Every structure is written in structure tokens, then in C-alpha cells.
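=== RUN LOG ===
request id: a7f3
mode: sequence -> structure
chains: 1
length: 375
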Amino acid sequence: MKLINRISMLSLFGGAVLLMSYLTNLNVETPSSIQNSGIPSSDISNHHNPKGGFINTANDFNDNTAILPLLIRYATEKRIDAIPEHVIPVQSVTQSQLNNMKSDTIIRLGHSSLFMQLNGQKWLIDPVFSDRASPFSFIGPKRFHQPPIALSDLPDIDGILISHDHYDHLDEASIKFLAQKVKHFVVPLGVDHHLKKWQVPTNTIHALDWWQSITLDGITLTATPTQHFSGRGLFDKNETLWASYVIKTPDSSLFFSGDSGYFDGFKAIGERFGPFDITMIETGAYDKDWADIHMTPEQSLQAHIDLKGRNMLPIHNGTFDLAFHAWYEPFNRIAQLAHQAHVPLLTPIMGQAITVNKLPQTKEWWNTFVPSKNQ
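=== RESULT ===
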């Protein structure tokens, strides 16, 4: 079973998916409320593959990771502390607490899933409430912890942001459950096709290309580039777009990275939209064999600096076993790096509220669960 789980995980995040082939061009309707953010047209379209779907724009991007060596690694390589030995702390939250949350507050729900109270509205980013980040309920990466609030206990949600269609970011069961209680779904181009297939009302879906913005009830959301890939099966590689987001409210400026390798796009985003009060930056599930699509902690910190971020909130960690490193390694490395660089780091336990204009003190909570030999 362990081997099956590892192979299933590989197919999701860096191995078998890399065998998927480009298919047809997307035909996406663009609502008139969507605006290009003053970016030259060449910058908007150069990631569209003439053969269909999308591509990364870096000249040195490596999309040729060999599948067989990765399969051998997953089958044979011994990993240390890939999952916690004990249940990690989670601060439970209630529907009433979410309904009365202060504006411009962020709560980590796990991995890259977040709740945000913005300008009097309730938003979710990449909500994954299922037990496994997998197309199957019986194999694949399983959660270390339960979410701070059950899916059924959530209040009505004003909007959901989706970064891309991988299973640890786009959870079919969660979307289907939320479909009728969400006013707006903001997604990258092509991801709207998944949502329509899952019976999400078409009039609630807003599909954005890179550098396109939409303003919804005083919140401006701009889809910005990342260096990643997409696909949920063996034959749909890069049919849908992957994105990060700039989130602007009357009182705060936020950035959500989605998944990405390090590239010069972070600096371009920082120059056009920075500075940011908080950057929510992918910091976890990195490896030498997929270095172009996920960042090391050193690169995550540099991305934060490129973005002109003030406070950094590491995400994409602490919930699923997706790589070869220990589950706590991303926390340890980014904490040390941020300290050395004098970058304010936010490391809340899952469920702890982070309010932009009154930031709490956060602790290195994971150290309690790190074996003494590795501290």
C-alpha cells in the first residue's frame, strides 16, 4: 500500500503528469467586467501554446523530467519523518466566529487552503476539505490533520479563488458541496470547464488570463503569472492555466502565489502591484527532480523580497506528504532564513486568525513535534 500511495502521489505532482500531452485550444468566454491590467498584449498572450493550452515562458524552463528514475525513487528511497508522528495542533473555528471576523483577516485551513475576510466578504482560496489530495478516496496523499472547520459548517461564501487544477488545490468534492452557496468563483482560463462539469452555475464563474483583473464588491483580483503546469489525468496536460493572485481591498494588499518555481515573474508582479502587506508564498513540496515547478525555501524568501512583501506567510506545507523531505523541513528552513534576512514571518497554527492591521505573534509550533535528533 505504501508503494501504491507513493506512485499515486507521483502521478499527481511531478512525475506521471509530466507525460501528458498538449491537446486542443481553449474557447473561453470573457465577461465584459474583466479588464486587462495595463499590460502589453504581448505579455498577455505569450504563454498561450499555438498547439493548444498553455506554456511557461522562461527560456530555460525544464519540462523533461524523466518518469522512470522518479518512480524508482518513490519505490526505493527511504524517507525520514515524511509525516508527523503525532497529531499537529489545530485551532478550531466556528461559523459564528467566521461570520464575525474582523475585516482583512486570513486563516490557514491547511496546505494552500485559506479563509479570508475581506472588505466585509468571506472568501476561500483553493479549498480542499477531502481527506486525500487524490482522484481516489482510498489512495494518495492523506491529510495530517482535519481542517479547523468542517465543510458543512462553513457560512455562505462570497467568493472562491482557484490557482490551478491539481488535486491539492482543486477538490471536486469541496467545490460540488459549495457550488450553490458561493456568489463568485474566480479561476484561471480553462478551470471554468471543470466547474461547469461539476454543476457550478455558469453565471458565478469568472475565468481570467494572466494580467487580467476583476473587481467584485470593492475587491480587485488580478491573475498573475506562475511557473508551473496543470492537469488532472494522463491526457490533459496544460490544457488549463495556472496562476497566482494579487488581492487588493480598500485597506490591504495581499499576494497568493499558487504553485510555482522561482522565476523573474515575481519581480514583475512586485514592480506592477507591490508592495504587499502579506505574501502567501508556496514553501514546501520541493525537490531537485522538479526544481522548475516548486521553490526551495531560499527561493520562496527571494520571491517574497522580489514582490516587495512586508510579512511572509509560508503555505503549501503542513498538511499532505507530497515530497521526499521531512514534513517540518520547510518550516525550519524558512524560519532560519527569514530571521537572517530580517523578514517578518507569520507561522500560525491551522485555524489561527491573522489580521492585517493587527498582526499577532506566531510561534514555531512545529518544533514541539520535531524529533530531538533533528532539532
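=== NOTES ===
The chain has nine helices and 14 strands.
The two ends are 30 Å apart (CA to CA).
=== END ===
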